């Protein structure tokens, strides 16, 4: 056998164990997000900037399109980690789960919806809503609960002072308003800013600013996954922290450019507008630590809406150790 061939085979044999070792060191993590939203910008920054890869993680991201579907994916083993509202973990716990769903890293810390009026007022006052037709969000969901909490906070009884419409599917709420239904509507971005740009409505208030800090969207997993693969959870949280810091330190324009690939059908300028709006009102959490005050605010909002099945202690469904360690690093 020629010397060069022998040398090549030796090189291949030497490289194979190294390659296998490298592959074995990479951990695959399946993440189910409740929807695709600019509201989750730090997650996409972590992917586009390679922060998960730096931590030795191979991230598989799927969009479940709904809180119930996201939680089903997690509970059934179809996903390792879920990105969804923290209220879902409370619902699961209240049903007597033997494998609790643990919130380990917070992504957003305010409500992400805005109040859009059909007619632009000279000066907006919440009392203007009295007697109006209001297109709200699905009953039992966090947007609806936060929305009603804010209305009550401003002296409006949603059931008595408004013609409240809540029977329209989430995907069709914006279309219903655009077609002429309602005087006011509660919308997520980028639809709210797009409507304003097209003259279909006017953003007059932020439910996020009004409702205070709350664990609106959180990464969570089953306790059994933490027990078995806590190292992967730590690596995931480390990558997220890098992205949260990056978003905080960079402009809305730079963040928009970093996540543009995840929103191919959205105008880059609109992405920048939305990112800037969320940055200005502090919607993006600067770290993943879900503190007790935010957890209690969440349950207050749920209780006000009549949707809190039972009070759950912060220590029962929240593990801050991963986020605290990531923040220190």
From TrEMBL:
GO cellular component: periplasmic space
Pfam families according to UniProt: NMT1 (PF09084)
UniProt KW keywords: Signal
Main location per the UniProt record: periplasm
Domain SsuA/THI5-like span(s) in chain numbering: 41-250
Top-level taxonomic group: Bacteria
InterPro entries: SsuA/THI5 (IPR015168)
Residues annotated as signal peptide: 1-20
Localization (cell): Periplasm
Family designation: Belongs to the bacterial solute-binding protein SsuA/TauA family.
The protein's name in its UniProt record: PhnD/SsuA/transferrin family substrate-binding protein
């Amino acid at each position: 056998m020629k010397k060069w061939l022998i040398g090549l085979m030796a090189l291949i044999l030497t490289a194979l164990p190294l390659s296998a070792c490298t592959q074995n060191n990479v951990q695959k993590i399946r993440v189910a997000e409740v929807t695709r939203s600019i509201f989750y910008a730090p997650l996409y920054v972590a992917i586009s900037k390679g922060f998960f890869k730096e931590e030795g993680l191979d991230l598989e991201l799927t969009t479940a399109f709904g809180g119930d579907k996201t939680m089903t994916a997690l509970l059934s083993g179809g996903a390792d980690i879920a990105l969804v509202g923290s209220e879902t973990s409370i619902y699961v716990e209240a049903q007597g789960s033997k494998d609790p769903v643990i919130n380990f890293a917070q992504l957003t810390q305010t409500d992400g919806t805005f109040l859009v009026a059909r007619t632009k007022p000279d000066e907006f006052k919440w009392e203007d809503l009295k007697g109006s037709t209001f297109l709200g969000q699905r009953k039992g969901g966090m947007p609806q609960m936060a929305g009603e909490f804010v209305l009550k906070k401003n002296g409006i009884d949603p059931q008595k002072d408004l013609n409240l419409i809540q029977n329209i599917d989430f995907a069709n709420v914006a279309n219903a308003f655009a077609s002429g239904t309602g005087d006011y509507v509660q919308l997520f971005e980028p639809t709210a800013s797009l409507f304003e740009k097209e003259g279909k409505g006017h953003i007059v208030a932020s439910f996020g600013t009004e409702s205070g800090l709350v664990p609106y969207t959180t990464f969570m997993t089953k306790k059994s996954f933490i027990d078995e693969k806590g190292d992967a959870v730590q690596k995931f949280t480390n990558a997220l922290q890098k992205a949260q810091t990056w978003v905080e330190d960079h402009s809305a324009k730079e963040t928009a450019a970093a996540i543009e690939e995840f929103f191919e059908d959205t105008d880059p300028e609109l992405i920048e507008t939305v990112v800037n709006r969320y940055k200005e009102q502090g919607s993006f959490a600067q770290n993943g630590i879900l503190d007790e005050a935010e957890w209690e605010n969440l349950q207050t909002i749920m209780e006000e809406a009549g949707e809190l099945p039972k009070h759950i202690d912060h220590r029962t469904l929240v593990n801050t150790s991963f986020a605290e360690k990531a923040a220190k690093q």
